[in-house]
Specification:
CATH topology: Methylamine Dehydrogenase, Chain H
CATH superfamily: YVTN repeat-like/Quinoprotein amine dehydrogenase
Low-confidence stretches: 1-23, 65-69
Radius of gyration: 19 Å
Structural class: mainly beta
Strand content: 35-45%
C-alpha cells in the first residue's frame, strides 16, 4: 500500500500555494490543493536524472552539492519517502557529474557521466565502469536508452552514439549517417528503432538495427542549438520537445512532423519529456514548469501548483501512477495523487 505523504511537507506546500509563491505556482488547474509535494532531503539540489525499476525502487542522479552534502546517485525503496546514497556514488569533489541514468528490465543500473558509463547488477551495491574516458574517444555520456531487445544506447558529447548488445560488456560505435553532433536525447520504439536528438541545428536521426545506419528525419527550420528531447507512445508515434519551438509529433516514424497548435505549449522551452504507459504526455520546461496532455498532444494543461522551481530537468512515473519531477536547484517533487485520480 502507498505510504502517506509527510504532513510537514504538505503544510509547507500549502503556505507556498496561498500567497508566498503565486507567480511560481500559476497554472491552468482550478484546484486549491497543491498538485506537487517536495521530497524531503533534496531541497536546493539539481536533479539530473530519474529512473524507476519494476519494483518501484527509485534512482536519482544529483549534480549539485547541497543539503545532501554530495553529488551522486541516491535510491529509495519506499516510494520516495526516505533516501540513501548508493555505495561508491557519492562524490564530494563534484567530479564525474551525472548526466543520465537508466534501469533495464533486469534491474541493472547504467549511469552516464563525463568519465564514461558505469553499471551495477546488484541494485547499486557494487559498480563496474564499462566504458572509460578515452576508450572510445572522449566519451562524455549525455543520454541513455534501453531498447525492446535490451540493447543499450548511449549518446555522447563528441563521440556520436555507442551501443551494446551484451548488457554493457562490449560496445560498438555507429557513425554512418550521423554527423559529429552532441547527442543529448535518445528514445526507442517497440519496433526496435532508436531516435537521437542532436544539439546542432535541432536534427533528429533514426537508427534501425537491420540497416546499422542513421537517417536524418527532421523536422527542419528550427533553432541552431536546439537539442530536441524525445519520447515514443504506445502506438509508435514520436514526440519531440524543442527549445523555443514547443512540441512536434510524428505518426509515421519520423518521416513527417506536425507542431502542436495549443498556444499554451507552442513557444515554450521544452527540456524534458515523458510519455506514460497509458499515453499521458508530460513536458518539462526551462522556465514555465510542467505541462501535460491526455489527448495525444492536441491540448495541454499547466500543473505547477506546489512547485518552488519551474526548471523541470527530468520526469519519471512509478507503477502506481505517481509522477516524480526533478528541478534545477530545488530538488525533487512527487505528485500528491496518481495519474488516474487527477480528473476524478
Amino acid at each position: 500500500m502507498r505510504k502517506q505523504l509527510f504532513p510537514i511537507a504538505a503544510l509547507l506546500i500549502s503556505l507556498v500555494s496561498f500567497g508566498m509563491g503565486e507567480d511560481l505556482n500559476s497554472d491552468t488547474t482550478s484546484t486549491d490543493v497543491p498538485f506537487w509535494e517536495p521530497i524531503t532531503g533534496f531541497y536546493n539540489e539539481y536533479i539530473s536524472a530519474i529512473d524507476i525499476n519494476i519494483f518501484d525502487h527509485i534512482f536519482v542522479g544529483v549534480r549539485n552539492i547541497g543539503s545532501i552534502s554530495s553529488s551522486g546517485v541516491y535510491s529509495s525503496t519506499d516510494y520516495g519517502n526516505t533516501w540513501n546514497p548508493i555505495n561508491g556514488w557519492v562524490m564530494s569533489d563534484g567530479s564525474s557529474l551525472i548526466h543520465c541514468l537508466v534501469v533495464n528490465v533486469y534491474g541493472d543500473i547504467f549511469v552516464g557521466t563525463g568519465d564514461g558509463i558505469f553499471r551495477s547488477r546488484d541494485n547499486g551495491t557494487s559498480w563496474t565502469q564499462v566504458i572509460r574516458e578515452g576508450e572510445s574517444g572522449s566519451l562524455d555520456a549525455r543520454s541513455l536508452v534501453v531498447t525492446r531487445d535490451n540493447e543499450i544506447f548511449v549518446g555522447t558529447w563528441r563521440t556520436g552514439v555507442l551501443y551494446s548488445r551484451d548488457n554493457g560488456d562490449t560496445w560498438a560505435q555507429v557513425k554512418e549517417g550521423l554527423p559529429d553532433f552532441p547527442v543529448m536525447h535518445l528514445a526507442a520504439d517497440s519496433y526496435g528503432q532508436v531516435f537521437a536528438g542532436t544539439m546542432i541545428r535541432s536534427k533528429i536521426f533514426r537508427f534501425t538495427s537491420a540497416d546499422e545506419t542513421w537517417e536524418e528525419i527532421g523536422p527542419d527550420t528550427l533553432g541552431e542549438y536546439d537539442a530536441p528531447c524525445l519520447a515514443v507512445n504506445s502506438t509508435g508515434e514520436i514526440f519531440a520537445g524543442f527549445v523555443h519551438n514547443g512540441v512536434y509529433y510524428s505518426r509515421d516514424y519520423g518521416n513527417t512532423w506536425i507542431q502542436s497548435n495549443d498556444d499554451k505549449i507552442r513557444d515554450k522551452t521544452i527540456i524534458s519529456l515523458l510519455i506514460t504507459s497509458n499515453d499521458h504526455i508530460f513536458v518539462g520546461t526551462q522556465e514555465n514548469g510542467i505541462y501535460y496532455s491526455t489527448d495525444n498532444g492536441e491540448t495541454w494543461e499547466q500543473i505547477n501548483n506546489g512547485l518552488m522551481n519551474l526548471f523541470i530537468s527530468t520526469i519519471a512515473v512509478d507503477t502506481y501512477g505517481y509522477v516524480f519531477v526533478g528541478t534545477k536547484k530545488d530538488g525533487l517533487y512527487r505528485s500528491r495523487e496518481p495519474i488516474d485520480e487527477w480528473h476524478k
